[in-house]
Amino acid sequence: MSHDKLAARLGTTRQTVISWENGVEPKRYADALAKFSGFPREAFLRREGEALAVETSLGLLRGLGEKVDQIAGDLDELVGLVKEQSAGEAS
């Protein structure tokens, strides 16, 4: 996403977004960034937030992995049912 698009989405300017990349804490926009990104607002307010961001990312990935596993299990079950139905129709 470009600086301009992110700035527009958060109601700020491109230069403000660039300042965040250069180390300025986005105190005024921490809540908006948290809502937009899914990260806790603390991740945007302190240097230690980098570790928190990694932890949050890993948590989100684990949750997605669990959903993928569940979907894969559901698909396996559906394939089994289709095979059973096909075998029954063939007899």
N/C terminus separation? 57 Å
Order of helix and strand elements from N to C terminus: HHHH
Sheet with the most strands, sense and barrel status: none
Number of helices: 4
Q: Give Rg in angstroms.
A: 22 Å
Strand content: under 5%
Secondary structure: number of strands: 0
Which bin fits the share of residues in helices?
over 70%
In one word, what is the shape?
Answer: elongated
Question: Mean pLDDT, nearest integer?
Answer: 87
Structural class: mainly alpha
Which residues form runs of ≥5 with pLDDT under 50? none
List keywords for this structure.
mainly alpha, 4 helices, 91 residues
What does this structure look like?
This protein has 91 residues and is mostly helical. The chain has a domain at 3-46. It has helices spanning 3-10, 14-21, 30-37, 49-90. α1 (3-10) crosses α2. It is elongated and about 70 Å long. The model has no long low-confidence stretch (mean pLDDT 87).
Summarize the structure.
The protein is mostly helical.
List the helices and strands and how they pair.
Elements lengths: L2 H8 L3 H8 L8 H8 L11 H42 L1
Helix pairs in contact: 1-2
